[in-house]
Amino acid sequence: MTELMAGVEHSPLALLLLGQQRDQSSERGVDCPGELPPASDPALVERARAAKAALGDQVFVLGHHYQRDEVIQFADVTGDSFRLAQQAAARPDAPYIVFCGVHFMAESADILTTDQQQVVLPDLAAGCSMADMASFQQVEDCWEQLQSAGVADVTVPVSYMNSSAAIKGFTGRHGGTICTSSNADRALEWAFTRGEKVLFLPDQHLGRNTAVRELGLSLEDCVVWNPRRPLGGNTVEQLQAARMILWKGHCSVHGRFTLESVEDVRARVPGVQVLVHPECQYEVVQAADQVGSTERIIKLVEESPAGTAWAIGTELNLVRRLADRHPDKTIVFLEKTVCFCSTMNRIDLPHLVWALEELVAGRVPNQITVEPETAKYARQALDQMLALP
Ligand code: 13P
Ligand code: SF4
Q1: Rounded to the nearest 5 degrees, what angle is found at the Cα of 173, between the Cα atoms of 169 and 174?
Q2: Residues contacting ligand 2 via CB (< 6 Å)
Q3: How confident is the model over 209-244, as pLDDT tens digits?
Q4: Which ligand is nearest to the CA of 255?
Q5: What global pTM score does this model have?
Q6: Which CATH architecture has domain 31-128+344-371?
């Protein structure tokens, strides 16, 4: 440590940025402890195949649609976060679940699987910047302030899957539900049968888009909760009047699509249909022709006739895969700048090979476990989501 830094107390985040500490609980990630094969190893595909064959039914590999092609080819099932949660819960016989996705998804898989199953995340640095935008302490502080403003009793928490297990536990403890982008409308409808207001965590865009576009609330019914300001930056009266209290979080990938990019692609590609994920900003979603979770995006493109043109606003690995699979259609990426999710991309073939070969050797690498008390309440909120109509 330099003299300048000596005696200065650094926050866990600062230490992490300085590369000085591990933070296993953060979505922001840590180093992978393994001796990874080099990415240039020409035998990687063969090694992954051999390790997977050696493990047989012992292993079940889940792959989110945003994963790289080199990884997705080894997934037993691919899906959006809802489908993957369902699939994890439906496989009690596989002792090892290798989750090719991000940390919060692996946590959810651990919560939904049996105590005998072990969930592996091939790279612990595969976190999610959106999930990191709501810490447990910030959310507890928010709830206390809602209590003192006299609105907590009529507020139901609805948390996006893209949140830590601790936030999911908070949600379950306060009688709320988890949602994903494929069921956020039904989750909100359910919540409004139980309370007058919703505290929506942590993606303000999904919350606003769903409340206004799907449930018919107005923009004025929504306030934003900034965890860095007293009362989230609102007055007591504003909180009393609001129907949706939207946590000030966003996806660092989907938040980058702009209204200009929609206008630009319409000018460039005749007849193009703009299709975006609901994590995009409200104005972008409003300007698009269709909106949907990753599963819905795939379905819409698959079912469209040859010759149609699509500009898609979601993660680039998925858009490229769709373009490769549908050469009879014009499929372009909505934004001109490259837009991979850097944490999803942490899971690459060397990490997958390493994780599978460790399992073959009888070691369980990068196991994701959720502490039982948190898991109990998080499970209530996840089960509530799985039971939505
Ligand atoms: P879905 O898988 O629910 O479409 O969410 C997208 C996402 O951002 C996952 O991290
Ligand atoms: Fe998180 Fe966005 Fe990446 Fe999904 S795409 S893992 S929400 S940063």
Answers
A1: 120
A2: 102, 128-130, 162, 251-253, 315, 341, 343-344
A3: 999 999 999 999 999 999 999 999 999 999 999 999
A4: 2
A5: 0.90
A6: 3-Layer(aba) Sandwich (3.40)
